[in-house]
Design a protein that fits this description.
mainly alpha; Non-ribosomal Peptide Synthetase Peptidyl Carrier Protein, Chain A; 6 helices; 0% strand; globular; disordered N terminus
Length: 103
């Protein structure tokens, strides 16, 4: 992540940080991708390959000070679901998997 962003106080803050991170990466790596990144957007739709997903998780883990397994971007396939997972790691709160996965 190119610049520090304030500490998140909610899942909405986490989501905003992820969206900002992705927007900056897409501008640099995929200039033809001009859509606004939103919570229901999947990483497949955005066009992230395995390498990009692992790099994203590594940078987000450093930024938030949490441990993120490389599989997290495959377990939580949208911006919003990843934000929910990361928020649960930051806050120590429970993660409602049915809500996060939309089942």
């Amino acid at each position: 992540m190119t610049h520090p962003i304030q500490t998140p106080y909610s899942v909405a803050d986490v989501s905003a940080i992820i969206r900002e991170h992705l927007t900056q990466k897409l501008k640099a790596d995929q200039p033809d991708f001009t859509e606004v990144v939103h919570d229901s957007m999947s990483f497949d739709y955005i066009g992230l390959d395995s390498f990009s997903r692992v790099n994203m998780l590594t940078e987000l883990a450093k930024h938030f000070g949490v441990r993120l397994e490389p599989t997290a971007a495959y377990d939580f396939v949208t911006v919003g679901s990843l934000a929910e997972f990361i928020w649960s790691e930051i806050s120590g709160g429970p993660l409602d998997m049915k809500k996060v996965l939309g089942i």
